[in-house]
Design goal:
This protein is of the alpha+beta class and 669 residues long. It is built from 29 helices and 10 strands. Helix 28 links the parallel strand 6 and strand 7. A 5-stranded mixed beta sheet has the order 7-6-8-10-9, with helices on both faces. A 3-stranded antiparallel beta sheet has the order 1-5-2. The chain has helices at residues 3-27, 33-54, 61-77, 90-104, 112-115, 119-125, 165-177, 179-183, 185-205, 207-218, 221-227, 232-253, 256-272, 279-293, 299-320, 323-333, 336-358, 360-371, 373-397, 412-421, 423-431, 433-449, 456-471, 484-487, 490-505, 517-534, 546-554, 569-580, 593-608; strands spanning 109-110, 136-137, 140-141, 151-152, 157-160, 562-566, 585-589, 613-617, 630-644, 655-668.
């Protein structure tokens, strides 16, 4: 494995185990991020010392040389991180959840303020289960079903958005030095993901392909954006690449400790993201094929056992903690018909597996077919042809469906449909149009020349993700946001294929140096295209100044104060960090008559208890009279921050400004 790979996997094991311990403790409300981080750091130092003592050899210069340039460029491009602390979207939900976990040691937050309200007032303030604050749910599940109508508002328990391995990891950063160090966690994970990607590709295809692929991946505009932008996809990258690296080395060495680590890392993805739900079936498909066509290695049991244990924890987490998020996400991604089709395929998958296990003649027949020369030849020619046909269809034919959309009609639903039909074309906004061509040709050559038992699982994982999320990105069609589904595996997969093709085109002998003109020209055009996408991000920080400006606004509210936000962009964005970062009890009042009346009742109760109550609004939005109370305007300030212009029909990159005039009213009985 070498010293470099051993050090990386040892460090990865310590980091991810530390994150998992914090996550598991937080599930039970027992996390202590600083203590867990300290123990993880001690384990990291100890494991690195053990590696230096037990692994023979030195770090190869070629390894460091091939990695140093992409890492150096990435360090420059990925810092400083975006100041994404607002509610309303996933990144702010993760950051606020991380801060809350760091302070409380719990994933599920408990609010005594909400518990003190009468049930009638509370039910009026939270008419739907997910109406606490944007990205912070107030809900629990009744015992009579798992459909969304069975969710009800909790008396005092608040569940953060999403799955929670990522915010629990962010909590370590917050515990060290507050929200600024919390925001540094994502760029660090991005850099570690690049290292894992490089080492994986180097082990499979050599240093030249690994260097070029990592360089192309590091400077991809989507990677640059999301490395600075707190979201769980970057953590998923790191887990997948490091897990696949450990998996490939396990295949080469039959080391049971690496098998345990590989299973653990790949399964940890399910604690981070729900969208990789196909991964267990891809893994079973791989091992099923290997079992039918070769000797079963007992080491695989260690991998499958480790993977199954963490996968079970993910299922329990989805059922008991992230239930609302899980159900709503599946409903958003899959229609009732698609859900039934998926269920049918799952049942058929396990029925076929059981039949093969129990009925030996059928198993022998299938084994013979899979080992036949016809199957091998068909795979080597059929897969590349299929890739080329599907790519041509996705680029030239599928977008023709846009002709059915009237040009005069605009709606979010039609924007989403256009983004879906043009998904492959719009991927070219990030990998460049030439990069699409090089990537497709590269994948055709890869599947023809390099498909074997070591590359099969990485190829299958990338293929499954590519097919699913290029068919339907299943996301709000606002770019850069809409590239989230592609950043985990699709874009790095294209970087690999582009690099492999360019290296194959490079002349093998100096006597043929003139043949280098083509790969050099293609590489330069690709580099210019990527630079065009990255240029709007150079030196840019989304919401630069948000921490200081919002902190100054929150400082106007006493620590025991209660803040009611009028319904609007300010309330949606500010209420969540006011509550979970700045520790000011906050509510979003959504201009509903019943809710307004309940807010007035609650405000009078808090005032009677001696707690100051404030109303934050914007000029043109309702004042405190909305809830039947009077107040005094105590301050007015302008919050002005850089914000990229949202695009739905052209490549993103233009600069804009988020600007809000904020009024603070102090309410009176």
């Amino acid at each position: 494995m070498g010293l470099s790979g051993s050090l990386f996997l040892a460090a990865t094991a310590c980091l991810v185990v530390t994150a998992w311990v914090g996550f598991t403790l937080a599930e039970f409300g027992m996390d202590q991020p600083r203590l867990v981080l300290l123990l993880g750091t001690i384990a990291l130092v100890g494991s690195c010392c053990l590696v230096f003592r037990s692994v023979r050899g030195r770090i190869q210069f070629s390894t460091l040389a091939g990695l140093s340039l992409p890492l150096a460029i990435a360090m420059f491009l990925y810092s400083p991180p975006d100041e994404w602390i607002f509610g309303g979207l996933d990144p702010g939900s993760y950051v606020n959840a991380g801060a809350a976990i760091a302070k409380s040691g719990r994933i599920v937050q408990v609010s005594p303020t909400l518990a003190s309200l009468s049930p009638s007032v509370r039910s009026a303030l939270f008419p739907t289960p997910a109406s606490r604050l944007p990205g912070m749910y107030l809900m629990f599940l009744r015992s009579d079903g798992i459909q969304s109508p069975h969710f009800t508002a909790s008396a005092d328990q608040v569940v953060p958005h999403g799955f929670h391995l990522f915010p629990t990891t962010l909590a370590f950063g917050y515990a060290v030095a507050g929200v600024r160090s919390e925001l540094l966690v994502n760029p660090i994970l991005a850099l570690l993901g690049l290292v894992g990607f490089y080492l994986l590709i180097r082990r499979l295809f050599g240093t030249s392909v690994a260097f070029l692929a990592t360089l192309l991946f590091a400077v991809n505009p989507a990677e640059v954006w999301f490395a600075s932008y707190p979201d769980a996809e970057i953590f998923a990258q790191f887990l997948l690449f490091s897990g696949l690296l450990a998996f490939v080395i396990m295949l080469d060495t039959s080391n049971r400790w690496l098998a345990l680590l590989a299973g653990f890392l790949l399964a940890a993805v399910h604690l981070d993201k729900i969208e990789l739900a196909l991964l267990p079936f891809v893994i079973l498909l791989y091992f099923g094929y290997r079992s039918l066509t070769g000797k079963f290695d007992p080491t695989w049991y260690w991998f499958l056992g480790s993977y199954a244990v963490i996968l079970l924890q993910a299922v329990l987490h989805a059922a008991l903690i992230a239930t609302w998020y899980t159900v709503r996400t599946l409903q958003a991604i899959l229609s009732a018909r698609e859900l039934a089709a998926v269920g049918t395929l799952v049942v058929a998958f396990f029925a076929l597996a059981s039949l093969l296990y129990l009925y030996r003649p059928l198993r022998c027949l299938l084994t013979s077919a899979l080992q036949s020369q016809a199957f091998v030849t068909g795979t080597q020619t059929g897969l590349p042809a299929l890739i080329g046909i599907v790519a041509a269809y996705a680029y030239y034919i599928r977008p023709l469906g846009l002709s059915s959309i009237p040009n005069s009609v605009a709606s979010p639903e039609l924007d989403a449909l256009a983004n879906q039909l043009e998904s492959f074309v719009r991927l070219g906004w990030y990998v460049t149009p030439l990069g699409l061509l090089l990537g497709v040709v590269g994948w055709m050559i890869l599947t023809n020349r390099e498909l074997n038992h070591r590359t099969a699982l990485p190829f299958l994982v990338i293929a499954a993700d590519t097919v699913v999320f290029l068919y339907n990105p299943a996301i709000t069609p606002v770019h850069y946001w809409a590239a989230r589904r592609w950043i985990t595996l699709i874009i790095p997969g294209f970087a690999l294929a582009q690099a492999y093709l360019l290296v194959q085109l490079w002349p093998k002998k100096w006597a043929n140096w003139s043949n280098a003109a083509l790969p050099v020209a293609l590489g330069l055009v690709l580099a210019v295209g990527l630079y065009g996408g990255v240029r709007p991000l150079l030196g840019y920080v989304e919401y630069r100044g948000a921490i200081d400006q919002l902190g100054a606004l929150a400082a106007e509210i006493p620590p025991n104060g209660v803040v009611l936000f009028a319904n609007g962009d300010t309330g949606i964005r500010f209420s969540t960090p006011f509550e979970y970062i700045y520790d000011r009890t906050s509510l979003l009042i959504t201009s509903d008559t019943r809710m307004d009346q309940a807010a007035g009742v609650a405000a009078r109760q808090w005032l009677a208890e001696g707690r100051p109550v404030y109303w934050i609004t914007n000029p043109g939005l309702p004042g405190p009279s909305e809830i039947g109370l009077s107040g005094t305007l105590v301050s007015q300030r302008v919050i002005s921050l850089p914000e990229k212009v949202a695009t739905t029909s052209e490549p993103p990159g233009a600069d804009g400004t988020f600007q809000q005039t904020v009024q603070v009213w102090q309410l009176q009985p």
